[in-house]
Amino acid sequence: MFPTMFCPMLVTRALADSTNATIFISYGTGEVRVAPVNDTLRVGAVSIPRQGIGVAGSVTADYASSSYDGLFGLGFPNNSALNSTPPFFNMIQEGKLQQNVFSVWLNPDLAALDAGEITIGGLNHSRFSGNLTM
């Protein structure tokens, strides 16, 4: 799931540097209690040291029964529930992307195993036709 509101993610607590705080985040019909931490986040070949993330301490039933195990926020920094710069913006600031964009493709065939994809730092030109102005 890639929301554009906030940026908590699940990580192993032993690898993280905790700030000893707790934040309650509501999203949709569920709520998550997270501990804000800083850790090295890896997305594909990109590594972001000391990235602010949230370690889930408890979740409501809506999240516990879901098919995903974390959230990766793509929203603006001022929308971050963790008061930290989201990974996408850190990738931009550190010059780790070929292009400062992300693109999302959702498969219109709801029964397909290939439900969609996200491309960070570029576009998958095979997923659209025509001109794209940025």
TrEMBL record:
GO terms for biological process: proteolysis. Transmembrane segments: none annotated. Pfam families: Asp. CDD domains: pepsin_like. Residues 1-134 form the Peptidase A1 domain. SUPFAM superfamilies: Acid proteases. GO terms for molecular function: aspartic-type endopeptidase activity. It comes from the Eukaryota. PANTHER family: BETA-SITE APP-CLEAVING ENZYME, ISOFORM A-RELATED. Belongs to the peptidase A1 family. This is Peptidase A1 domain-containing protein. It comes from Apatococcus fuscideae. The lineage of its organism: Eukaryota, Viridiplantae, Chlorophyta, core chlorophytes, Trebouxiophyceae.
